[in-house]
Design a protein that fits this description.
This protein is of the alpha+beta class and 221 residues long. 54% of the residues lie in helices and 10% in strands. The radius of gyration is 18 Å and the shape is globular.
């Protein structure tokens, strides 16, 4: 891969729009005539959430946003419909609302071992479609093994919080960038795109970044 466009994506594993944005971005990459590298960065939407939240996702939304259960259900129905439009199946009746800090630590572990993209997809599918628990270390180690990572090494990294400093560094960088919500895409360290935008928006940004590289003057060695 020669001189790929660098894309840094801040997201949370329990963010419904992050999964949708991932699919829309992937569609853009398919139509982009060039190479792209992707790195996922940590962003905790609700770091105060317990590992085992007592209640449904609708209860959680209702409590957190101060809205009625009916309004929360409407939000869930809307995002599920948008997810379906990009080929995703959200099953909110199965979701375990949880704390995602360990999931973020594991994603950094996976990055260090060349499997971050595979693990990101696995955790999102587990959470939104399969009803998997992504807040407990034992479950996370199993997901790690499923994408070809060493289960015991993953479990050790989680137990020792080896990658917690990396999670905190990502969060600090998000603050520095002024990121207040996710997904947030930083393309070639120049363009910031907030939200699950249309694929055309992502494609245009990739093309612009590539065009600027081509037009940049060549520095003398």
């Amino acid at each position: 891969m020669s001189n790929p466009i660098d894309v840094q994506i801040w997201s949370d594993v329990q963010c419904p729009w992050c999964y949708i944005g991932k699919r829309k971005f992937e569609a853009a990459v398919e139509h982009f005539e060039g190479d792209v590298t992707v790195t996922y960065r940590s962003f905790e939407l609700a770091p105060d959430t317990p590992v085992d939240f007592e209640g449904s996702p609708v209860d959680y939304l209702s409590q957190r946003k101060g809205i009625s259960p009916e309004q929360a259900q409407q939000m869930v129905d809307r995002v599920s419909g948008v997810a379906e439009s990009v080929g995703l199946e959200y099953h909110y009746d199965r979701i375990h609302q949880t704390n995602t800090v360990l999931a973020h630590e594991l994603l950094h572990f996976a990055k260090a071992h060349g499997k971050q993209l595979e693990l990101k997809e696995r955790l999102l599918r587990a959470y939104f479609t399969e009803g998997g628990h992504i807040g407990r270390a034992a479950d996370l180690a199993e997901f790690a093994a499923e994408v070809g990572l060493d289960r015991d090494a993953a479990a050790t990294a989680l137990a020792e919080h080896t990658y917690l400093p990396d999670v905190k560094a990502d969060m600090a960088q998000a603050v520095a960038y002024g990121i207040q919500g996710v997904p947030f895409f930083v393309i070639d360290a120049k363009y910031g795109i907030s939200g699950a935008q249309d694929s055309a928006t992502f494609l245009a940004a990739l093309q612009q970044a590539a065009a600027e590289r081509e037009s940049a003057p060549i520095e003398a060695s």
